[in-house]
Structures are given as structure tokens and as C-alpha cells.
Amino acid sequence: MKNKKRMLALAGVLPLLVLLSGCASKQAPITAHSTGFWDHYIVWNVVRAIQGLSHVFGDRYGWGIIIFTIIVRIVILPLMIVQIRSTRKTMELQPKLKELQMMYPGKDVESRQALAAAQQRLYSEAGVNPMAGCLPLVVQMPVLFALYQAIYRSDVLKSGTFLWTQLGHRDPYFILPILAALFTYLTSKLSMMSQPESNTMTTTMTYGMPIMIFVMALNFSSALVLYWVVSNAFSALQTLLFNNPYKIRAEREAKERAKKEHAKKIAKAKRKAYKKR
Judging by beta carbons within 10 Å of its beta carbon (0-12, 13-18, 19+), is residue 157 exposed, middle or buried? Predict the structure, then answer.
């Protein structure tokens, strides 16, 4: 359920980026003289941060964006770890949640209210916050929007180049959009593999989200797509380090084997007790 909410929230962000693309292009260029809290304190400081990091690499703004992205992901890493732990706990609660859904099928208002209250008690007893999965996304959104506007409204950053691309223009060879979609798929696939069971919603989003990212990236500047590539690659690595699906599967299979062995021992003990009678 949490993964569904997170994927739906992410899907909702993408159309908003389309709106921002039109709004940012119509706004005045961002400079040190820009006024307003958002422009002066947020967007301008993102521009300054990228410029400062770029100076270390000989004013190569692509590298500045890469380092800026990595710093952002490291800063929010504690939140991501909280999310991962919360997700693992929620997975463990799935059998009990299904039992509650059987008890309260939700066919009327009273049943739905009882189900919601029972689920809340279960989450509280297990120390799980159902909304923790959305927190990292909410934290990243202002940064992503600020970076988007920083690129579109900064003449310096728009004029920068990185490898074969000009940061203010689309990738002419579609390499960055393909990489963005590939790392999006890899992250989603790894996350889905750690689930005890999949459903139509998670499967659809796992394959549909990369397509959405690819289509969106075709129309965005190379700078923003570069941010997506680095951010999603970081997410894939983070998943392998802190939520490795292969390790989770092995642990789950070991627990299942242990349960079966325990059940066999109990059954064997009962048979022996019965024979003694």
C-alpha cells in the first residue's frame, strides 16, 4: 500500500513539472537582484551552489550539477533509511493487514471506519508510520523545482556544456533520457523484488514510470535530465546497499524453511505422543 501511494505521488509530480516548464520560461532571469523569498533565497542559492561547485571543476556546470545532486541525496539519506526501515516493517505486517481486511470488508461506512482504526492500532503497536514513504519525495520536490527554475532562468547555467550536451537544451542523441528511464526502471524493479508479493498496480508503475520519465526527459533541458540520471542511479545503489532484494528474499526463504522445519518437529512430536498412548 505504501509503495502504491509513493508511486502515485511520484506520478503526480511529473505533470507538475510540465507546468513549471512553461512558467519558468516566462519568468525573469534569476540573478543576485531577484526579489521574493523563492527567487532570492531558494532558486538563486541553488544557482550559487552549482556555480561554486562548478568552479572546482574548471567551470564545468555539468559536474557542478552532478556533485550538487549527490550532496542533496546524501543529506536526505537518513530520511531514506527511515523510509526503508518503515517499508520493511510494513511488509512484515501484510499477513495481519490481510486478516483485518477479512474481518472488516469495508462494505459500509462503519466497517471502513473500524478497519481504519484497527490498521492504525496495528501500525502504532509495530512503530510504523504509513506516511514515512512519502517524506523523502516531499523533501526532494522543492529542490527539484528550484533546480529546474535555476537552469531555465540562469543565463550562465543555460550556456554551460557537459560532454555532448548543452545544459539548457535537450539531449540531441537521447542518451540522457534513456539513462534516466533505465535507472528509474532499475530502482523500481529492485524495490518490487523485495516485496513479498506483487500486484497489478506495482507492476504497471514499475514498467510505466520509466516510460513516463523517458517521454518527459525528451522535452526537458539536459541539466534537469542529468539530475534525474544521477539521482536515480543513486537510488538504485542505495536500494542495493540498504534494501537489497536478494538478501531480503534469502532471509524470507530462510524464515519459511525454519517455519516448515518447526511445523514438522511439532507434527513429529504429536505422532510420538499419540503412539505412546
Answer: buried
